[in-house]
Amino acid sequence: MSRRSGILEFAVLGLLRESPMHGYELRKRLNTSLGVFRAFSYGSLYPCLKTLVQQGWLAEEPGRSPDDPRATALSNRRAKIVYRLTADGKERFEELLGQTGPDAWEDEHFGVRFAFFGQTSRDVRMRVLEGRRSRLEERLAKMRASMARTREKLDAYTLELQRHGMESVEREVRWLNELIESEREGRDHRDPPHHGDQRPPDGAPERPRPGPPDDTTT
Amino acid sequence: MSRRSGILEFAVLGLLRESPMHGYELRKRLNTSLGVFRAFSYGSLYPCLKTLVQQGWLAEEPGRSPDDPRATALSNRRAKIVYRLTADGKERFEELLGQTGPDAWEDEHFGVRFAFFGQTSRDVRMRVLEGRRSRLEERLAKMRASMARTREKLDAYTLELQRHGMESVEREVRWLNELIESEREGRDHRDPPHHGDQRPPDGAPERPRPGPPDDTTT
DNA sequence: AATTTCATGTAATTCGTTACATGATTCC
DNA sequence: GGAATCATGTAACGAATTACATGAAATT
């Protein structure tokens, strides 16, 4: 019954933390802002919202779209249900933000975790980035071993597929290296090679816990 | 009931087409040769094998590992179950190979389709590659539109995430361009118009001529 | 007036995993 | 003879989708 997906829950709480929204709008943001990696359908979203309300993390408000000036006064024409984060919900989200288990850097989770780095403390950001990197390096090692073993036996297409796959992983590792370097230097990654201008994240809560990164991933 | 996964079924038929195998070995090949993209567990594989046998596409043989010289004679010590492709199974696989619906170039399917390009006729290869490319270009267009709309409102991390995502897609498009170009140039004269006879797995398959002029890696 | 887009939801189904249960074979 | 790996399977669960069902609001 409990349609708690982990990642969907996390994303919903995170988006509602910024501002209240109704389901339809929430879904659009889910599939654009964060949606390069994942797409959710209503069949997932609405049940999830329901359970989050039951948990006490969200509150429902009959309402109109918040940027609709017309409907402020005389409308009892409820149709949209606007969800907002409760105090408990905020607490819950921050608890999730602080988690740095292996889950945080698996393929499915990493993207959405990164998307909310603006809300994440620096040491957690570091742990997640480094965890992700060592996860990928592990994977690279396996791929290299596998390619060494089977080099001769595979046809050109399979080989090309593996080569391209490895290159993709290597590319992500380089990306992570740049990000980690930026975090370390304390600058926000605005200078790395040649991307357009970026604004620093605004409300990043800086907790100065200099914990050594938990390197033993797996 | 029917644990037919589409992609798992396809991969199993394709691997067994090359040589008979038992489940355990099959799973390893699934997760190395093709496994950059997907990993399957026994809980998926064995039920799938069962239904493929029921369909008449696979046949079970009590057997030993085919490269174990000791056990050739006196062993009734069955433990492994070696699966081989039946005639119907071959037909089925070739039917699947020929399909060029939109399914063939979605994220999940494309990898495994590509892995068996060595068995695929040229025109189908072309359609799959071009289908994949236009799918990605579609996605790029959406991402660009979305970024144009929301540029100002997002924090640096979200933006960086989107930028990296877009770059990944662009990179895959360039890869596809090279592959399509190679296919176009490398017209092999020995191209069978419709399926029927396939080369033995040892015979040199056509080379995709990946031609990597950029060696940004290694 | 009709069509599109907005908006919310439920039921059945798909695709796959994890945890469990069992046992043979090989290596030390 | 004990551990690691090989080998096969099942039951319970998980996460998300698709298809369905409904209806209000905006646009043409």
Describe this structure in words.
Chains A, B: It holds the Pfam family PadR. Chains A, B: This is PadR family transcriptional regulator. 2 copies of one chain form a homodimer. Chain A has helices spanning 7-18, 23-32, 42-55, 87-98, 107-115, 122-150, 156-185; strands at 21-22, 58-63, 80-85. By secondary structure, chain A is mainly α. Chain A has 2 domains: 7-98, Winged helix-like DNA-binding domain superfamily/Winged helix DNA-binding domain (Arc Repressor Mutant, subunit A, Orthogonal Bundle), CATH 1.10.10.10; 104-185. In chain A, 28% of the residues are buried. The model of chain A is unreliable at 65-77 and 190-218 (pLDDT under 50). Chain A binds chain B through residues 32-34, 36-37, 111, 114-118, 143, 146, 150, 154-158, 160-168, 170-171, 175, 179, 188-190, 195-196, 198-202, and chain B through 32-34, 36-37, 111, 114-118, 143, 146, 150, 154-166, 168, 171, 175, 179, 201, 205-208, 210, 217. The structure holds a DNA duplex (28 and 28 nucleotides).
CATH class of the largest domain in chain A equals Mainly Alpha
Structurally, the number of domains of chain A stands at 2
Helical content of chain A stands at 40-55%
CATH topology of the largest domain in chain A: Arc Repressor Mutant, subunit A
Structural class of chain A: mainly alpha
Q: Give me the side-by-side strand order of the main sheet of chain A.
A: 1-3-2
Low-confidence stretches of chain A: 65-77, 190-218
Radius of gyration of chain A: 21 Å
Mean pLDDT of chain A: 79
Q: What does the oligomeric state look like here?
A: homodimer
Strand content of chain A: 5-15%
**Termini of chain A, distance in Å?**
30 Å
Give me the number of helical elements of chain A.
Answer: 7
Return the CATH architecture of the largest domain in chain A.
Orthogonal Bundle
What is the CATH superfamily label of the largest domain in chain A? Winged helix-like DNA-binding domain superfamily/Winged helix DNA-binding domain
Protein name (chains A, B): PadR family transcriptional regulator
Region (Disordered) (chains A, B): 183-218
Domain Transcription regulator PadR N-terminal (chains A, B): 12-95
Coiled coil (chains A, B): 126-160
